[in-house]
Design brief:
This protein has about 475 residues and is α+β, with helices and mostly antiparallel strands. It is about 30% helix and about 20% strand. It has a 5-stranded mixed beta sheet. Strands 8, 10, 16 and 17 form a 4-stranded antiparallel beta sheet that branches. Pfam families: RES.
Length: about 475
């Protein structure tokens, strides 16, 4: 009987599932469809059964057909309206709705597959086999165990075997992030977003806590140096950078910037509002948790797509989890490796990463700009200008905090025409100017960030509050039995 069904023809117009319909249109023979009577590209039911079987093996599972103890008791309760129904759909309707084909075609496919999986011995003892007409099937969630095992191996490699050069680590990171610029969330938002002028990431806030007046005054005078990324020799390791790799960490609001530096009570925190002056491309890790999974069950690669995207959702939580200070040296290694990898433009050009803050309850986003995109425009104080920084003001009521930066410029003098010197060493021994000292020698980087003293705010820390999860401690007291065999 199934041989008759296998030879029947189904055309592309009778298949609503886009992937399967497109495959029939591309590879099918133009013949008359046995289900609609129209002529067009067709596959026989045997070939379509192969594809349905593959889709169900990858994405569906047989539902439980018997009641468990609780359900049986509920069904016997005269006052209960419980009626047992297996999860999912009966096999013919599951095939019909998955492939979006007529019910008669789905019934023919079910008949073919049931016959293929028929087991004589199982039939003798009353056991059902795959695709029995009475069975129900339900969709199963993607399984990312293989990705998790691969990632665990990657982290162990970084921590214990090969930290700096590893072909295996490169393969893992490439497989995880390849094509990330093409991915979108379930709300159709891209994972790679624009930063800079006219975007939500045009301004970034960076804070620094001070307990010394001298250092505070230096920061108010030159925030480009004192609040910007530190020179490489002084760059400490962080969540997204190894020691010596200078990057820019910024928050999207002042409160998060203050929380990130964890200032002690009594300290003064300077907050700089940096303007991003050129377009940037940023990978939004906060959106990984909502990565969409559009595709087709009939695509053999779709199972891997689903498992990869399931893993990416867990990776976003992994990269943002709190790390205790004593564990940072090792626990930051994976995220540092990810940032280094993405900064090299191996999979797509990127300037930085958006990631959730672990210091604030609602996880507001932070941004790290890679070294290539973290150059702050130099504040040039006019030659000969005298500068003062004030942190307090005295009036009739005494001293009060007041912060100001003063430039006293020299009066303009009549400029004399320059004469060319014949001394080839003229100016060679002159001390370097501020402009010379601030040149980003040979890096080829473009200015990304701009700040001036008027973009600063000082907050005096008068108290700190914490969000907590409280647990009581139980105290158990008992007397052990005298007989150890009791």
């Amino acid at each position: 009987m199934h041989d008759d069904h296998e030879g029947k023809l189904l055309c592309t117009d009778c298949v609503g599932e886009p992937f399967l319909s497109a495959e029939i249109a591309r590879d099918g023979l133009v013949l008359t469809c046995d289900y609609c009577g129209e002529e067009g590209p067709t596959f026989n039911i045997g070939a379509i059964s192969d594809r349905v079987d593959g889709a169900f093996q990858r994405h569906f599972s047989r539902s439980r057909m018997e009641m468990n103890g609780y359900e049986w008791a509920m069904s016997k309760d005269s006052e209960s309206s419980f009626d047992f129904e297996p999860e999912g759909e009966q096999i013919v309707y599951a095939i019909m709705n998955t492939a979006e084909i007529p019910e008669c075609a789905a019934a023919d496919i079910q008949s073919v597959l049931e016959d293929r999986y028929k087991d004589f011995e199982a039939a003798q003892i009353g056991e059902t086999t795959e695709y029995d007409s009475d069975l129900y099937y339900h969709e199963i969630e993607a399984d990312d165990r293989e990705w998790q095992e691969t990632w665990f191996s990657f982290e162990r490699l970084l921590k214990t075997e090969a930290r700096f050069f590893s072909a295996h680590a490169l393969r893992v990171l490439t497989s995880v992030f390849e094509g990330v610029h093409l991915m979108k969330t379930r709300r159709n938002s891209p994972l790679v977003v624009n930063g800079g002028p006219g975007t939500p990431y045009e301004f970034l806030f960076r804070a620094r806590a001070f307990q010394s007046s001298r250092k505070l005054e230096a920061a108010l005078l030159r925030p480009d140096k004192e609040l910007g990324p530190p020179p490489s020799p002084f760059a400490a390791s962080g969540r997204m950078n190894a020691r010596g790799i200078s990057v820019f960490y910024g928050a999207t609001d002042p409160e998060t910037a203050v929380a990130e530096v964890r200032p002690p009570v009594g300290s003064e925190v300077v907050i700089g509002k940096f303007q991003v002056v050129r377009p940037l491309r940023l990978l939004d890790l906060t959106a990984l948790g909502g990565v969409g999974s559009a595709g087709s069950y009939f695509d053999p690669d779709y199972a891997n797509v689903l498992s990869r995207r399931m893993f990416l959702r867990s990776l976003s939580r992994r990269m943002a989890r709190p790390v205790m200070p004593d564990d940072q040296e090792f626990e930051y290694l994976p995220t540092q490796a990810i940032a280094d990898f993405l900064a090299t433009d191996t999979v797509t050009p990127l300037d930085g990463i958006i990631f959730p803050s672990v210091q604030v309850a609602d996880g507001k986003p932070n941004v790290v700009l890679f070294h290539k995109a973290s150059l702050v425009e130099t504040i040039l104080i006019p030659d000969g200008a005298e500068t003062d920084v004030h942190t307090a003001h005295e009036d009739d009521e005494g001293w009060s905090r007041e912060y100001s930066v003063v430039w006293r410029l020299r009066p303009e003098e009549k400029k004399m025409p320059k004469t060319e010197s014949t001394d080839i060493f003229s100016g060679f021994w002159d001390p370097p100017t501020d402009r010379d000292n601030d040149i980003d020698f040979g890096s080829g980087r473009d200015v990304t960030l701009h700040i001036t003293p008027k973009d600063l705010e000082v907050r005096v820390i008068t108290g700190v509050s914490f969000g907590t999860e409280d647990h009581k401690v139980d105290h158990l007291v008992y007397t052990a039995p005298a007989d150890p065999d009791f």
